[in-house]
């Protein structure tokens, strides 16, 4: 009897998992409401726009939607106007984006009044750190959707189907470019057979308005072309790149251009030949210019010799402001170090006034709990975009400094390092899909609020699913699911900062996978700027990295009044405090607590926040499908465990220096420090479903 | 600079660990106050009594303490009288116990008024489950203090020193017997060279009044003697045992007798030859009788065929009540199953009216978190001793049914399965020493309260240590250390019941070491009564083992009014509810909660209790030496982790059947069920210091 019960039980689970694996993302509405669409012509992009309307229309039955392509002063680039009669745009892409906006408004219960919407950035790219062997650097959702192996390059029907789903999803949030291989680029991507596969990708992405880009290895002329040098000023080298560029454009006439990581973390670059970043970038830019291509040149550079890694990109790039071709864009990570849970914005934003500069953010959660932690990154990006650089007076936000509002950039762009993989969820965690969604939405409109984005995403992703199997969408659903789920999303990044690196702490993770805590990490054999000790500088006197004028003076890279504000602990925002200051353990915080107590309170709060997420989530059972409910429930458990590991590791480690008790009212650590120093947090709690969260495709 | 700091820091730790490793137990007072002792004669025991007075006296300087041996109607057995002038007793042992009591009163600030104290039980034994190869069954404090290996039997000076410390500690709490090898006995213990070692042990234990006993294997005549049978009625077998008995008594004239586990869990016994427990026990009893020896025959028997293991000892032994020799004592485990966190008392207590019956309790924490969890067992034993059997009317407690108050037993005795080992703490956890202490104190006086025992032990163990290095003992010390530490001890067993097996649940542990949770354990290949499924009987209808009249009728083994009280869920104490009843998940508890909710609340409460222990303990830093403080702090962390594992495992497993949510206000699980089912909880959190808690001797 008991055995029979079990069999039925498990069968139920298996059947249901197939029913809802999250693969449909936020594109779920299958409407049967008839609509008449009038399109100006047939084309791949317009056909997709028509198809979207026909399968997703939930307006008045038998309405007529007119798609109109015409010039309009108020419509810029791929922008659009929607109104009662249809969609107007000056490009086919604009029509497609307008259609997605129209459907989104219908599906999220927003009014479809007359609206003009123009993109904040011309180029809105995903950067895929996908290797040709099929692995994904910092990818936590299975293997690459683009690559299977260097010897398995033929394009299959399955490939095309998946790429098409991918392109549709990206287009639906306004993205228009994909760089399809890792910035740590293999020269082999430029081989004929690999380029044939890239053409295959481009052909599937094009009908959704997605332009294809490639990351290139600066040593390709030597390593692939057999030349003796890759010196960018060498005529043979230029010739080689010229031929390669021509070959690419012959295959992909609308190829977008190159993304380059040069002289960074061991990657080759022009400095290897005594040349400058400008020499390297300009050489490539000149070659793609005739085809309308661009070069995105990354500013993520640092060497072990300089005393403060956070200063280096600025020091290395500022001298070349104005020296780059107009089709070069300097791609700058949001913060001066490397995608930490919280960094102040990179001082390059707004400072390079004569160069196109684009922000790079990370959608994949390299430092934010991988695909195990629910961390909605939109609030982090919103914080970045709204940060005021003061470079051209108050209001010179990072957004306005990069989107053309202030500087007359030839090109405006933004890039997000993608979190896609073959996992059936695409992103490893159902809520990680929201980060892909949010990046697209912010790239389109950098003034959107995270609250609005979360609201949209939750409605699109969960309201239109599993109908008949969960409580009906309505006022109760909104109160008991939408509101608390949104609240959790909006709070989640601050929770992660709290349990990982509060008060401006950064780069104190374990060397095993950038996942768990490792504040103790600092072997003598390691590059100092790859250790945790370098960044937290904890000793019995205090903690924090002194970047003030009496320290490394990194503060001076910021425009006044920021330089002075950051320089003084009394005016420095407390969430950046230990980024800029080394302060005594009994430093008095604004709350009245000592620095040590405040640190403890933050770590503890992070743990409590995740526990509260768990409680809230469990209350939502029944309001969405059971499969995604359970999956997220399990992920939240892992997150709660990990938060405890972080709290215990950091507090017990720093307590060796602070020599102060953890405030008596706080829950005590449950791990011993030496235990935490011995384990690999990444794998310690691993279980099968962490490694393959849902069925792999 | 940082390196130098570290070196000093670690040196400090190492030096300090040596300074306080807990090896001195509760015997710490080194007093310099001079005292004059008048002893009636010189003897090994009396010399030890004099020595204790001289080194531990903290009364008035230059007092005279007179030790007097004389008959006195009010002094029974090894009892004593203490008063202003000294100690009076009728035996040398009595003098020794009186001296220890006198010193204890001085050291714990109790008045030394005229007091007569007689032991509740004549025989107060530790049972050591130590194997000849040096391992200890269910021992969690390192290897055996008695055995190193079957080929390493020579007695060394180190052996003698350790045994002497052991004997002194046992005597100080009134114990007077030690069975020095495992009840799962090797026949080899009766070989000449092993017996020579036993003589060595006995010679060291004797001066502290400790009598030596041995566990014997019932097949020894075949396996050691080379006979064809071990049938207890076979003349050759009797002859063999007779010769062996003579050999032992020649070596150890005051040898105590035999402890026998027969026909139990694969051990041989008289039933193998168609004989009865009485046949077997009486044969051995007749042989030791001339020497004044006794036989302790264990009633821990059960076979896989009977439908309810809890009924079996009673069924098997009751028919032989009155059939045993007067120097046989039936040794009965406290509960009917096996040392679970909570069991009702064994129905054999009080029921065998014509046989000497002795309780066996377990000091080592086989089912109570090993030496990782702080669980003060005194409250459990107090609960047992005060349980009313009603066998001779109200007030027929287990204590009175076994200590001679009710029945005219020839011998009264009590045994505790020891928790000693070579670990420098003796017991693996500093607080596990308190269980050794408490067992001795209750064996001496089964009316003592756990509160008094805890108070004594804490003062003796922590107040007399590390003087000058911690806050001075006094009113503040009592308020901030003694009171909360005592509270923690007194609450600790209930906390363990809460996070392991509340409401009468039992035997739902993991098969890996009786340590972690394993409610799911029930492979088809296993004996049903060795699985968890057999004991919790959870299904969608409810949970619990139906031992009512309509179930296995185990209730009928109890005397009225207990049988009726246990039989009715409305009158059954709720802490035994699921021991006796299978009840629906929505059964209404006295609290008003459903059974499911109540179960959840108990598990959660257990976790919260351990967390509160942690908070309280951390507040005590500075009131005791740093070494033991840190060690216990680390153990409490492990306990908190384990409590979470227990809670999550049991709630998530049972939730599959209850199909009800965990009450919304409770903290959510942080482990997934399939993860917990895959790990071995015993080793999952293991770290070096768990395996060798403190330096091994």
Task: Explain the overall architecture.
2 copies of one chain form a homodimer. Chain A has about 700 residues and is of the alpha/beta class. Chain A has 3 domains: about 80 residues, Chitobiase/beta-hexosaminidase domain 2-like (Chitobiase, domain 2), CATH 3.30.379; about 325 residues, TIM Barrel (Alpha-Beta Barrel); about 100 residues, Alpha-glucuronidase, C-terminal domain (Alpha-d-glucuronidase, C-terminal Domain, Alpha-Beta Complex), CATH 3.90.1330.10. Helices cover about 40% and strands about 10% of the residues of chain A. Chain A is built from 22 helices and 15 strands. An 8-stranded parallel barrel of chain A has the order 6-7-8-9-10-11-12-13. The N terminus and C terminus of chain A are likely disordered. Chains A and B meet through α1, α18, α19 and α20 of A and α1, α18, α19 and α20 of B.
> What is the 3D form of chain A?
globular
Largest interface: A-B, 36 and 37 residues
Quaternary structure type? homodimer
Strand residue percentage of chain A: 5-15%
Give the proportion of residues in helices of chain A.
25-40%
Strand order of the largest sheet of chain A: 6-7-8-9-10-11-12-13
Uncertain residue segments of chain A: 1-18, 688-697
**Average residue-wise pLDDT of chain A:** 94
Question: Whole-Å distance between the termini of chain A?
Answer: 36 Å
Domain Glycosyl hydrolase family 67 C-terminal (chains A, B): 428-665
Keywords (chains A, B): Hydrolase
Protein name (chains A, B): Alpha-glucuronidase
Organism (chains A, B): Rufibacter sediminis
